[in-house]
Amino acid sequence: MVKEISVDEIKPGMVILRTDKEWLKLPFFGNPIENLDLVKILKNYGVKHIFINALDSESLDLSFEDEENKIVDNNIEKHAASIEEVRKTQRLHQTTLEIVSEMINDVRNGKEIFYEDFCIIIEQLLDECFKKPNLIASITRIKNNDDYEISHATNVAILNMVSARKIGMDIEEMKLAGVGGLLHDIGKTKIPKEILNKPGKLTEEEYKIIKKHPIYGAEILKGRFPKGVIDCVTYHHEKADGSGYPFNLKDMQIPKLAKITAVSDVYDALTSDKVYRSKTPAPQAIAEMLRSAGLQFNNIIIRFFVEALGGYPSGTLVLLDTGELAVVFKENHQDPQFPLVIVVTDKNQKPVTPYLFDLKEYNLLTKKYYKTILTALDSKKYNIDPNKIIESFLSNTSMEERYG
Questions:
Q1: What is the Cα–Cα distance from 306 to 325, expressed in whole angstroms?
Q2: Is the dihedral of CA 218, 224, 226, 232 positive or negative?
Q3: 11-40 average pLDDT score
Q4: pTM for the whole thing?
Q5: Taking residues 56-70, what's their average pLDDT?
Q6: From edge to edge, which strands make up the β-sheet containing 16-19?
Q7: What is the CA radius of gyration of the chain?
Q8: Phi, psi for 217 (deg, rounded to 5)
Q9: Percentage of the chain surpassing pLDDT 70?
Q10: Is 377 helix (H, G, I), strand (E, B) or coil?
Q11: SS3 47
């Protein structure tokens, strides 16, 4: 028996058969609901009512609040990685950089490129986007200062796919988003390097030349790449308020994949060192971008992007980029990627006397963070009980020792 309920009544375990938008088909339809994030996805599509199996709803006797907490905990465990998985993902990232570099050089040398060749690269990254989305997104913090262009293209591809997954796109759309991210700046191969790498401010004439790269990119891919990829390349500099280029399109006129690419492009660019400026700290970059919601970026996509980057609830075991292990002591709701943590090991994962560290701290001269989170870890695999760590820390330290 089919039952109609409000989208706000959704509970984990329910199976959505269809919605009041008959044309809408999403990957999670027909499967038990695991993640309450999909409520936002449905509302994004304007869904007000869903249709479920009435027997399924009757069998759900857990309260919504308790089940929501359970799902959050399960998601932490589900997406937690091991150090071995982190190293594997880092190797995949490096291999991707090398392959993309070769392919971009092929374009510079006048060779033809094809969608299928780039799908081979993207499919490997796509697997990681499904298995460990927070981990693969975290890996984009690794920057290749020797070749910004290649590092940027790879990171935008990854961020595009993580965002597309968060929004609820299917696998084929995620592939288009990934390849579109890899090639979004391919038109810059037609721009003189002295302009691209100019350390000072561009002249008005030089900026006009730079602004042609989306058109150049579309010309390079025309006839050999799907429309979704070409959309990413052509329209990723368009803005919601119509002030972008090359066509001054407004939000409703810009293809969704291009809107996703615009967000990924700006975030990775802001958080990378350039020849003409130092990188912006990630929290500051996100804050700046959120202020541009509705003006430069689509309101909904920028918020899904920030959520996709992931946060770290209290009690999560994390691996820092220094090699140290730490337990999240206090969440940072304003900047979710920079919580207060208790560091419990050295860089070789050997136990140390636990101490508190605020991940927002960074070097004022270099603008680089002293420590950042690479990924969440499964605490059971390392015989670490985060709750005991926090309790022990609280009982063995004074307020002065805790907070300085």
A1: 24
A2: negative
A3: 75
A4: 0.66
A5: 38
A6: 2-6, 49-53, 16-19
A7: 23
A8: -60, -45
A9: 82
A10: strand
A11: coil
